[in-house]
Amino acid sequence: MKDLSISEVAKASNVNITTVRYYERCGLIPEPPRTESGYRKFPLEIVERIKFIKRSQELGFTLSEIKKLLLISDNDKKFDSEEILQFTNNKIKEIESKIKDLKKIKFLLEELSKQCLGSGNPICDILPLMN
To answer: Which pLDDT value is given to residue 76?
Structure first.
């Protein structure tokens, strides 16, 4: 199995080298072994881990939450099942609330688009819709 340099990991993960280093400092990715000259040599699996971290961030997870998910996934014994259940239930409630808000915003934008049918229509005001 071929190990990857930090630049190869960054490119394959579609992130900056700085991001890879930051994730390492935060403990989101394990510190890789180094060559005799000090270069990091990452296993190929780290690319999928970084992609998971980035996608989770895009979906609104904090780095702390992502770290917890990764520790659970890595089968870290720091968490008991009750703590995992509480964490997941809280996150589900938060996601449901965001979905409700997004549906409301979607409806408001649909109403706005009905008002603003194209050029020449001066009435495009979202503020009255917010009430």
So the answer is: 66
